[in-house]
Design goal:
- This protein is of the alpha/beta class.
- The chain contains eleven helices and eleven strands.
- Strand 1, helix 2 and strand 2 (52-57) form a beta-alpha-beta unit.
- The two termini are 23 Å apart.
Length: 262
């Protein structure tokens, strides 16, 4: 699989390198949901183009001082941001991004985990998810977009917001925090919710599944250029690479749905 993926990527990167300007540092702000894809593909981009990716991590939304909208609002510089669409919408509303620079990268879904070896509750229907939430002793969710949606919209749509309020916990994510699944793996929460890409592959936690479509907001990871981008050509080249058909296998492996074929 690795060779199958890397051969077409090498061809694409050769084309990008041929059209790229002189090598430079590219400052990237990125949220956790797309980070595994970026981390796997980034070195190939650097090696082929000569650019160096300088990475800052933070959530797409939320009240953390590390959140990407907060960073940009206080004047931190970035050449490109990679985050979920709700966060990008906020940047657009605050006039912090360049018009027409948004590039769709992948579709994402909210899922749930339990501690490894524990029974996997039924969340396949709205009623089943509601019963699982009411029965759980403790519930964790992220401080970024998925958790913001669940705590402000999703739990209310299920009619359980008041009943579960006393047993929920908001988890601060990377860089200073951790995935929700890590909290569940330690037994500090019975069940946990986050984007699937941030739940899978966490030791000590078992993935249960995605929440029903009725409670699933449309979530897309996108790239965009901030107003203060100083390396727009290199930033666009990175987004072209990450959104390419050739990157689809890596995106799928990370628990996301590629958009390149659409």
């Amino acid at each position: 699989m690795a060779h199958y993926v890397l051969r077409p990527l090498a061809l694409l990167l050769a084309c990008l390198a041929a059209s790229a300007a002189s090598a430079t540092d590219v400052k990237v702000m990125i949220s956790a949901g797309f980070f595994n894809v970026y981390a796997e593909l980034g070195p190939a981009f650097e090696n082929s183009t000569g650019h160096k990716l300088v990475t800052t991590r933070g959530p797409s939304l939320g009240d953390s001082p590390e959140a990407i909208p907060t960073r940009l609002a206080r004047g931190e510089q970035a050449d490109v941001v990679i985050m979920d669409g709700a966060g990008a919408d906020l940047l657009d509303a605050r006039d912090l991004t360049r018009a027409g620079s948004r590039t769709p990268l992948a579709e994402s879904f909210i899922g749930m985990v339990v501690r490894s070896g524990q029974p996997k509750p039924d969340i396949s229907t709205v009623d089943a998810l509601r019963n699982t939430l009411l029965a759980a002793k403790s519930i964790a969710y992220s401080d970024s977009s998925s958790g913001t949606y669940l705590s402000t919209v999703g739990f209310g749509k299920l009619g359980v917001a008041d009943q579960i309020a006393g047993k929920t916990r908001k988890v601060r994510g990377p860089p200073s925090g951790e995935p929700v699944a890590a909290v569940v793996a330690r037994g500090e929460a019975e069940i946990g919710f986050q984007q699937v890409a941030e739940l899978i592959h966490v030791p000590g936690a078992d993935f249960v599944g995605t929440v029903p479509a009725e409670i699933q907001p449309p979530t897309y990871f996108v790239g965009a250029l901030p107003k203060n981008s100083q390396q727009p050509d290199a930033a666009v080249a990175l987004l072209r690479f990450l959104s390419s058909t050739e990157a689809a296998a890596v995106i799928t492996k990370a628990g996301l749905k590629p958009l390149a074929a659409r």
